[in-house]
Amino acid sequence: MLKSILEGRPALKKEVDKVAEVAGYLWQNGWAERNGGNITINITNFVDDEIKSLPAISPVTPIGATLTHLKGQYFFCKGTNKRMRDLARWPMDNGSVIRILDDCANYVIIADNPVKPTSELPSHLTVHNHLIEEGSPYKATLHTHPIELVAMSHSRKFLGKDVLTNILWSMIPETKAFCPLGLGIIPYTLPGSVELADGTLKQLDEYDVVLWEKHGVFAKGVDIMDAFDQVDVLTKSAKIYVNCMAMGFAPEGMTKEQMADMTRAFNLPK
Prior knowledge:
Blueprint: H1 2-5, H2 10-28, E1 38-42, H3 49-52, E2 61-62, E3 74-78, H4 84-89, E4 95-100, E5 106-111, H5 121-133, E6 140-144, H6 147-152, H7 163-171, H8 173-178, E7 183-186, H9 194-203, E8 209-212, E9 216-221, H10 224-246, H11 256-265
Helix pairs in contact: 5-9, 7-10
């Protein structure tokens, strides 16, 4: 089983360990209540012939869509109804490795246990399919519930295009440096719906992190730590904003000239 072979494959083990580490951060930050949040990473580059030969330990399961760029791809996925705090301690007991079949419409679990992947799997795989189609280096997707960002999404004044992005960028210089594409916004949509998946996919063409109104965020990254870091940086700025307001004043923020100077100095996207 994969748990035992991880020890002989340091690169693959490192990726699974990153998932466990990030899951712990999500729980510690209060962003992953009960079984909230999802993680899916593309591990195909770390899979060798021995892993490819592992038999299915689950029935063939429909994805719910035909994703032509995922043929023969492998993913590590958090399990449905599994808690992040448990994924942090026992990743192979609270997640599973799946193989996308050649029809690009079904998958099987190959390791370690038949832990059914997250209920958001179709949305995550749709994003991964698009990333491969675009030749993107991004291999990880993350959904979580950062408290301050979700709180700010309850105010209509923050939900115009790039309004919240510019507020968050202005709170601390590092925010634009480490999340240079800013934050996309999707108006409230039923969780798990096709509309939410389609809206997220569209926003991810422009942004690395997308805020789902009154719900949470969806982020992509080169690995799961990269996806987490971007959410973490944006949330730090949201905390600064919220703390200023709690102290009785609206934060001044960096001026447009100051942000423009930093954009030029660090060669960031405009």
